[in-house]
Automatic annotation (TrEMBL):
Residues 69-358 form the Amidohydrolase-related domain. NCBIfam families: PRK09237.1 (NF006689). The lineage of its organism: Bacteria, Bacillati, Actinomycetota, Actinomycetes, Micrococcales. InterPro entries: Amidohydro-rel (IPR006680), Deacetylase_Atu3266-like (IPR020043), Metal-dep_hydrolase_composite (IPR011059), Metal_Hydrolase (IPR032466). This is Amidohydrolase/deacetylase family metallohydrolase.
Length: 400
């Protein structure tokens, strides 16, 4: 494929190794025209012919990607970025573009009550694209972390009204992409799966997916999985607590296998207490590898053990997931969940011009999971920069 004068470049991401989730890294350059991907042009070897530099006096920028992996814009499906409203929140750019992540999805920090403030104070000023899983409880996490204990605040008319107004917006302007519900004993406080049932009812009415947090039983992961539909997401699925993927004999519960067969998706959701290396390794051995790899980044784990999405990706690499699978889990597979198939998480011509640059650094590092267990690795993925909707957010722009 070659660049044509009919589609002039505004950005050339040049000299890197493209990894788009479909295979091994390959030497290629990415051409951006306006806010869209124009082309991906393969080079003849790592140092072979490349896309020509912009003409003198032209308006194109060159992003120097030498030594970098060039990915579709990374999507972190589970973050907490409502810093003005919750103690958990971190600034979206801190976990977004500053870490080469182009889209973050806040996972239930806000419900309908505070959504307008979330939109004005978080979404609008961010350089990172910010979307939302709306909490099924009207206060979200603003009033505390047991939001399902009072079912009178769950699936309220205000929540239904907000969902309807969001669905009515143009696809590109919609912030809410699904409903978040947390199913663990500290959250439900004896209300069982009633909150999840209400979330699924609203999700059905509005054509949205549900993301379900699982943790300390009850309910068990198996009970949750039995209620879910194709396209729904179980986050924190690879924790090491009781009531998880495996029975006491170490076998995958048949219920989670059936759920995956009908299209329920299983996400890492690293967090402070929800990633077990042993569980992920066991799942990979049983052909049940994570399909999605989010962080659950918040103020309590930003400085460790999570750090950023590239670190979660590094951990998945260290436990045996192929790089192409990890990239797919954080780009195109994540885009599918939030109804952005082909627009986000892709380098195909016509896709939104989101590009992430990472570097594989070869150094000995000890990785730590959420239970304090360790794994050593010699390959660490580090964020370098990004392009968001055709705007470079990186210091690697070498000419204009």
């Amino acid at each position: 494929m070659s660049l044509t004068t009919a589609d002039p470049a505004t950005i050339l991401v040049r000299g890197g190794q493209v990894v788009d989730g479909t295979g091994a890294p390959r030497p290629a350059d990415v051409v951006v025209a306006g806010t869209r991907i124009s082309a991906v042009i393969d080079r003849d070897g790592a140092d072979g012919p490349s896309v020509a530099p912009p003409e003198p006096g032209g308006t194109a920028s060159v992003v120097d990607a030498r030594g970098c992996l060039v990915l579709p814009g990374l999507i972190d499906l589970h973050t907490h970025v409502f810093a003005p409203g919750t103690g958990l929140g971190v600034a979206p750019d801190t976990v977004g573009v500053d870490q080469a992540v182009t889209t973050v999805v806040d996972a239930g920090s806000t419900g309908a009550r505070d959504f307008a403030r979330f939109r004005e104070d978080v979404v609008a000023p961010a350089r990172t694209r910010v979307l939302s899983w709306l909490n099924i409880a009207e206060p979200g996490l603003v009033d505390g972390l047991s939001e399902l204990a009072d079912l009178s605040a769950v699936a309220t008319p205000a929540t239904a009204q907000l969902l309807a107004s969001q669905i009515a917006e143009d696809a590109g302007d919609r912030i809410v992409r699904g409903i978040k519900v947390r199913m663990s004993s500290s959250v439900t406080r004896g209300t069982g799966t009633a909150g999840l049932a209400r979330a699924l009812e609203l999700a059905d009415a509005h054509g949205l997916p549900v993301m379900v947090h699982v943790g300390n039983e009850p309910p068990t992961l198996v009970e949750v999985a039995a209620m879910l539909r194709p396209g729904d997401v179980i986050t924190h699925a690879f924790h090491g607590k009781a009531g998880g993927l495996f029975d006491d004999a170490g076998y995958l519960h048949r219920g989670v296998v059936r759920a995956r067969e009908r299209g329920v998706l299983f996400d890492v959701g690293h967090g402070s207490a929800s990633l077990s290396f042993e569980t992920v390794e066991h799942a990979i051995a049983e052909d049940f590898a994570p399909q999605l790899a989010s962080t659950d980044l918040h103020a309590g784990n930003l400085d460790g053990p999570v750090h950023h999405l590239a670190m979660t990706m590094t951990k998945m690499l260290a436990v045996g997931l192929p790089l192409s699978d990890i990239v797919r889990a954080t780009t195109s597979a994540a885009a599918d969940v939030i109804s952005e198939t082909g627009r986000l998480g892709s380098l195909a011509p016509g896709a939104t011009a989101d590009v992430s640059l990472l570097r594989i650094v070869e150094r000995r590092v000890t990785l730590v999971d959420a239970e304090g267990a360790t794994r050593d690795t010699d390959h660490v993925l580090e964020p370098v920069g990004a392009v968001v909707a055709g705007r470079p957010v990186t210091e690697a722009v070498v000419s204009r």
